[in-house]
Design goal:
The strands form four sheets. The chain has a five-stranded mixed beta barrel with strand order 10-11-12-16-15. It has a five-stranded mixed β-barrel with strand order 2-3-4-8-7. It is built from four helices and 23 strands. Among the domains are: 92 residues, OB fold (Dihydrolipoamide Acetyltransferase, E2P); 176 residues, Nucleic acid-binding proteins (OB fold (Dihydrolipoamide Acetyltransferase, E2P), Beta Barrel), CATH 2.40.50. By secondary structure, the protein is mainly beta. The radius of gyration is 21 Å and the shape is globular.
């Protein structure tokens, strides 16, 4: 199915900057000049969302090339832009860079091309001719506002060639049998669910985070969770490792002048196992704490509004059997920290969701990852939605159960 109202990964040029917080972008579509409207709140610098009231002219000049995604504006007035930019960043022509930026997909139409018992595949083609293969799980499917029954196979509720709407985030195609480079966070026919567990990162007070949902489509990604800082003003263990290994080449994520405030949200009021030096290198969190933290990490990583960074790095430290920290190279000799959970990790195509990370990785192992910007003052700079050390796709004759492979996609 061709999606006519959405474009992803478009390259354009800044044509006008009429105010400090607005810009007009020109690009071509089928040989016809198109105009797209950009607001400063939709611009990202190095994968990080601009703060409110930050001057767009500090980052963009007329003639700069940019990458962006946009939605078609319904019935624009004469002289108005035809497209509205949902996410935008500077285009990097440096062939040596390993960093690839992308944005999620929201509210677009696709066609079901494959159905299994509890999962399936969608196909969508945009106006640029780019195909998007999207893997989805039954737990993400809604029919007229209600989640599909878990007691029935998907084929009894959906059919091949059905047209549905979906939101999706990127994933590594090599890590699933269906060669999908997108994973659906919501698939629906009819009314879209009013409350999805996406993490809303803009203009949301930290006290209201757990009730902040995607009901208001005007909200876009920014910074929340102002309660995270270093322990008693000292660098965290992860930060000290960065300093020891890379000295000034590594970005320090903490603020040495801030006092520690006990987090009221994110399910981590006892988060010392991730942040505090102790006599034990591998500390096992309380099961209930771990489950709540993982659930709220999903609210960050499953947000299709986010901008995603894909690059490489190495294991900085395995914190316990579930969590680890990667040191990722975002630019030459510029490193940042990435937290990951085992449910997002792969070893040569095999999901590590039920494996102890302490038995798999050692410090220094090379990995690649897809990650999203972490909340402000979080213990790491980024949170991974997928981590992989695979050098090739999953073998066709693999004897791994299909469901095990399926569940290894980004956090459900």
């Amino acid at each position: 199915m061709i999606c006519i109202n959405f474009l992803h990964g478009v390259t354009g040029e800044v044509a006008e900057i009429p105010s400090p917080y607005k810009a007009i972008i020109y690009f071509e579509l089928d040989g016809v000049l198109q105009t797209a409207y950009l607001k400063s709140q939709r611009f990202y610098k190095n994968g990080k969302h601009l703060c409110d009231n930050q001057n767009l002219q500090k980052f963009l000049k007329i003639g700069y090339k940019v990458k962006f995604s946009c939605h078609l504006i319904d019935n624009p007035d004469p002289g108005q832009c035809q497209w509205f930019v949902t996410s935008c960043w500077r285009h990097n022509d440096d062939k040596d860079t390993r960093l690839v930026m992308s944005t999620g997909i929201m509210n677009v139409a696709g066609t079901i091309i494959d159905l299994k018992q509890r999962h399936g595949t969608l196909l969508m083609t945009d106006l640029l001719g780019t195909e998007y293969r999207v893997h989805f799980l039954a737990s993400k499917v809604y029919l007229f506002g209600k989640r599909v029954s878990s007691s029935k196979p998907l084929s009894s509720q959906l059919h091949i060639d059905d047209q549905v709407y979906f939101d999706a985030i990127p994933c590594f195609p090599e890590e699933n049998r269906h060669n999908c480079n997108w994973f659906a966070t919501c698939v629906h026919k009819g009314k879209k669910p009013e409350k999805l567990s996406y993490y809303v990162q803009n203009k949301v007070d930290s006290k209201d985070l757990l009730t902040a949902v995607e009901a208001d489509d005007n909200l876009v990604g920014n910074e929340v969770l102002d309660n995270f800082s270093t322990i008693n003003g000292s660098p965290t263990h992860c930060q000290q490792q960065e300093i020891d290994i890379l000295e000034n080449a590594v970005k320090q994520t903490g603020n040495s002048n801030e006092e520690f405030q006990s987090p009221e949200i994110f399910g981590v009021s006892d988060m010392e196992f991730l942040t505090e030096e102790t006599s034990s290198k591998h500390i096992e969190p309380h099961p209930r704490l771990s489950a709540k933290m993982l659930q709220e990490l999903k609210m960050v990583t499953n947000n299709p509004r986010a901008v995603f960074a894909t690059t490489e790095g190495f294991i900085l430290e395995i914190l316990n059997e579930e969590y680890g920290v990667i040191l990722g190279e975002f630019k030459r000799n510029i490193f940042q920290t990435i937290l990951f959970h085992r449910s997002n990790a792969f070893l040569f195509g095999m999901s590590l969701a039920n494996t102890k990370l302490t038995e798999i990785f050692i410090d220094g192992d090379r990995v690649r990852f897809i990650a999203v910007d972490a909340p402000k003052q979080f213990v790491c700079d980024w949170i991974a939605i997928q981590v992989s050390v695979a050098c090739h796709g999953l073998a066709e004759d693999s004897d791994l159960p299909e469901e095990e492979i399926t569940e290894g996609l980004p956090l459900e």
